[in-house]
């Protein structure tokens, strides 16, 4: 069971819901996390359960980032709106930076998200089980 975060900016929420609905069968059996409204919209339109954090601008991105920093998130789908300024842009950049530091795959558009989900469906994320098994303790 992988831990997957789902985040979408306002103008990308419909796209996220449509994407998750199309691949609902792949996401079943995994632990899903989402920022406030995105998580709720997914639950309203699918049979999936999503652990909801705060809205992104209110700290939800940082809550997910905390899991990434602890290497407790397996991958993220973050549908960003590149044409709209975000008031919490520093939080977004920090989350993406943490993904790079920890080697956590992060899709920021549907094309890349589809590649990750198809890899998930094929079982290509088995390497994450080794990460969790051999995760060093906090020193």
UniProtKB/TrEMBL annotation:
<dbReference type="InterPro" id="IPR036914">
    <property type="entry name" value="MGS-like_dom_sf"/>
</dbReference>
<feature type="domain" description="MGS-like">
    <location>
        <begin position="1"/>
        <end position="139"/>
    </location>
</feature>
<feature type="binding site">
    <location>
        <position position="88"/>
    </location>
    <ligand>
        <name>substrate</name>
    </ligand>
</feature>
<feature type="active site" description="Proton donor/acceptor">
    <location>
        <position position="61"/>
    </location>
</feature>
<feature type="binding site">
    <location>
        <position position="9"/>
    </location>
    <ligand>
        <name>substrate</name>
    </ligand>
</feature>
<keyword id="KW-0456">Lyase</keyword>
<comment type="similarity">
    <text>Belongs to the methylglyoxal synthase family.</text>
</comment>
<dbReference type="GO" id="GO:0008929">
    <property type="term" value="F:methylglyoxal synthase activity"/>
</dbReference>
<dbReference type="GO" id="GO:0019242">
    <property type="term" value="P:methylglyoxal biosynthetic process"/>
</dbReference>
<feature type="binding site">
    <location>
        <begin position="35"/>
        <end position="38"/>
    </location>
    <ligand>
        <name>substrate</name>
    </ligand>
</feature>
<protein>
    <recommendedName>
        <fullName>Methylglyoxal synthase</fullName>
        <ecNumber>4.2.3.3</ecNumber>
    </recommendedName>
</protein>
<dbReference type="InterPro" id="IPR018148">
    <property type="entry name" value="Methylglyoxal_synth_AS"/>
</dbReference>
<dbReference type="Pfam" id="PF02142">
    <property type="entry name" value="MGS"/>
</dbReference>
<comment type="function">
    <text>Catalyzes the formation of methylglyoxal from dihydroxyacetone phosphate.</text>
</comment>
<dbReference type="GO" id="GO:0005829">
    <property type="term" value="C:cytosol"/>
</dbReference>
<dbReference type="InterPro" id="IPR011607">
    <property type="entry name" value="MGS-like_dom"/>
</dbReference>
<feature type="binding site">
    <location>
        <begin position="55"/>
        <end position="56"/>
    </location>
    <ligand>
        <name>substrate</name>
    </ligand>
</feature>
<feature type="binding site">
    <location>
        <position position="13"/>
    </location>
    <ligand>
        <name>substrate</name>
    </ligand>
</feature>
<dbReference type="InterPro" id="IPR004363">
    <property type="entry name" value="Methylgl_synth"/>
</dbReference>
């Amino acid at each position: 069971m992988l831990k997957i975060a789902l985040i979408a900016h306002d103008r990308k929420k419909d796209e996220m819901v449509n994407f998750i609905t199309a691949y609902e069968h792949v996401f079943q059996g995994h632990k899903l996390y989402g920022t406030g409204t995105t998580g709720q919209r997914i639950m309203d339109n699918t049979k999936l359960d999503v652990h909801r954090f705060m809205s992104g601008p209110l700290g939800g991105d940082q809550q997910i980032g905390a899991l990434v920093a602890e290497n407790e998130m397996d991958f993220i789908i973050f549908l960003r709106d590149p044409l709209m300024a975000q008031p919490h842009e520093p939080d977004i950049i920090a989350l993406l930076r943490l993904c790079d530091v920890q080697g956590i795959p992060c899709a920021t558009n549907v094309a890349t998200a589809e590649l990750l989900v198809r890899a998930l469906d094929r079982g290509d994320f088995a390497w994450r089980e080794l990460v969790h098994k051999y995760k060093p303790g906090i020193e």
